[in-house]
């Protein structure tokens, strides 16, 4: 049997139709349906230029940032099974994670290195977007969403820094929040709200923890979804137009 008639018969069979809901993608209609009916392909527009698919156009920096965020959520949830956000127990539980919990050291390092890498990748992604002029119309809105994502990513990094409650964490956050406190008008109340008082203590630890494990990841998840949806609605990457 010729290959084309075999593929036609397979693509018209009941199970194939219930899984894929389109024929064999050897014509423009079925190729379009392949894109629109698949949850992963659906992230792309039906038609993209060859140039935008080239690795060297975006270096996949946005995708890498999103993958690192996924790694951070996964390893963060694992760390939450052991970490206790109290000034008496935070440091001992970190040591417990490192030295007694199976794969604890590995999980903690994955979390820490992915956080550093995500900050770096997001900045490089932003530089790539700027370099390729992809912030221009109609993508200004997505650029602004991106700027907020950068701030949230830095916020997640900053709030996570306090959690080990070691000397480095304590003094870094003391210095960081003192600097913020010097900003005119909004500085002192912002510092007070962030610390839940006038110095780095239990209130600050619980506030940083809540921001770090709930508020910021939730906002990043929502905004990354909006960001990707906008890339799709703006017709894929800007390479399609240049
Ligand atoms: C959590 C941080 C971020 C994630 C996960 C993310 C994710 C992505 C992804 C997956 C894409 C598709 C293309 C690619 O992989 O390069 C993209 C495109 C884009 N991103 Fe981001 N992004 C983030 C932060 C930013 C920042 C900081 C900016 C700029 C301030 C930005 C602006 C844009 C724009 C304008 C596009 C469209 C690019 C084009 O059409 O060529 N993003 N982003």
Write the layout of secondary structure elements.
Layout lengths: L2 H10 L1 H7 L7 H9 L13 H4 L1 H4 L2 H20 L9 H10 L4 H28 L8 H23 L4 H15 L5 H9 L6 H32 L9
Helix pairs in contact: 6-8, 7-8, 8-9, 9-10, 9-12, 10-11
Keywords for this structure?
mainly alpha, Cytochrome Bc1 Complex, Chain C, binds protoporphyrin IX containing FE, 242 residues, 12 helices
In the CATH hierarchy, the third-tier topology is known as Cytochrome Bc1 Complex, Chain C
Shape: elongated
The major pleated sheet works out as: none
What hetero molecules are in the model? protoporphyrin IX containing FE
Name given to the CATH homologous superfamily: Cytochrome Bc1 Complex, Chain C
Distance separating the two termini: 45 Å
Strand content: under 5%
Determine the oligomeric state from the structure: single chain
- Just give the CATH class: Mainly Alpha
Q: What is the level-2 CATH architecture name?
A: Up-down Bundle
The residue fraction in helices comes out at: over 70%
Q: Helix and strand succession?
A: HHHHHHHHHHHH
User: What's the structural domain tally?
Assistant: 1
| Mean pLDDT rating | 93
Query: Which structural class best describes the helix and strand composition?
Result: mainly alpha
């Amino acid at each position: 049997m010729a290959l084309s008639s075999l593929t036609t018969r397979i693509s018209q069979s009941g199970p194939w139709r219930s899984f894929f809901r389109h024929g064999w993608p050897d014509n423009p209609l079925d190729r379009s349906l392949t894109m629109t009916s698949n949850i992963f392909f659906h992230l792309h527009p039906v038609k993209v230029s060859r140039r935008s698919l080239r690795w060297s156009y975006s270096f996949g920096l946005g995708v890498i940032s999103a993958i690192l965020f996924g790694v951070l959520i996964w390893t963060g949830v694992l760390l939450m099974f052991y970490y206790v956000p109290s000034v008496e127990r935070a440091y001992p539980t970190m040591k417990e994670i490192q030295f007694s919990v199976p794969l604890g050291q590995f999980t903690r390092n994955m979390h820490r290195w992915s956080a550093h890498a995500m900050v770096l990748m997001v900045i490089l992604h932003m530089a790539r977007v700027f370099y390729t002029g992809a912030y221009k119309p109609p993508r200004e809105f997505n650029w602004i969403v991106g700027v907020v994502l950068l701030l949230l990513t830095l916020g997640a990094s900053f709030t996570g820094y306090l959690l080990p409650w070691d000397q480095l964490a304590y003094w870094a956050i003391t210095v960081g929040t003192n600097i913020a406190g010097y900003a005119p008008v909004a500085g002192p109340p912002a510092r007070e709200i962030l610390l839940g008082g006038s110095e780095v203590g239990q209130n600050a630890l619980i506030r940083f923890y809540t921001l770090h494990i709930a508020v910021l990841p939730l906002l990043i998840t929502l905004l990354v979804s909006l960001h990707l949806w906008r890339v799709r609605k703006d017709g894929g990457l800007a390479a399609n137009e240049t």
